[in-house]
Amino acid sequence: MNKLVPLALAAAVAAGGYYIYTRQHTDALPAGIAQSNGRLELNRFDIASLYPGRVEEMLVDEGSEVAAGDVLAKLSSDTSSSRVEAAKAQKQRAVESATRAAAEMKALAQRQKVAQMEWDNALELKRDDLVSDSEVRRRKAERDSAAAQVEAARAAQAEAQAAVNAAQAQINEAASADGDMTIRSPKAGRVEYKIAETGSVIAAGSKVVSLLDPADVSMNIFLPNGQAGRLKTGDDARIRLDSLNAVFPAKISFIATDAQFTPKAVETADERAKLMFKVKLKIPADTALKYNRLLKGGMTGNGFVKTDAKAAWPADLAVKLPK
């Protein structure tokens, strides 16, 4: 029985020491500053294929840094390639038809010119009574017929040119679809997951690669109702990570409008005090990019905010970036 006394005494001392340590570190924060723990998050965006196809080649690995426009993967599809060839063949036929229409238009225009000259000549001869009225009417009819043929040929030529333009549009569309079989990154990022593998067949809309945006780094913290209610988006904040001897600047980019923990139907003062609201702290993009290989999703730490705008950051929360 006496052996248990030292053990109980040691446990009491340890508990007391933990209480004192916790109280000292809690009290270390000046008035107007609140903190909560959280984890770093990098915004993720998935790259998908617009069209079905077989993965011919994956050009990135997990962890690879990519720039905007870099090729991530290449897909192959007989359908998209055949559409391009069919569109080119259709344009060739349309061009040939337009060429014939242009040649016919040129010949008819020349015939119209001759018919016009013959009619004008007949009118001159008629004034001297050298030709009959019927001859004048005949030549006028020939002139009118030639003019009508020119108008018809002009319409046919315009239709043929429209067919050429439509065929070119189909080529552009097919080529764009074929070009989309090369999957490119829309922005700079870091490959988190390779979702597709070489040789696999994917459907339209299937994800190929998951990227992390190194410029979009944030930490979600949760604060009680009394503290969150004093914050507003755009306020200064600080992030201190457990694994780095550094303090990163941040801004409050989001404050939840709904509590994360729903109280009972009847809210007492104590229950309202238990309401917790999510607050998102975002590191400036230029800072995040500068330390993009150092900042990783899942890193634990603490986020600090000012619940009083007039409060000053203590010395240990001054911005201190890694060297």
UniProtKB/TrEMBL annotation:
Annotated PANTHER family: 36 KDA ANTIGEN-RELATED, MEMBRANE PROTEIN
Transmembrane stretches, start-end: none
Gene Ontology, cellular component aspect: plasma membrane
Highest taxon, organism lineage: Bacteria
Protein name as it appears in the record: Acriflavin resistance protein
Organism: Neisseria chenwenguii
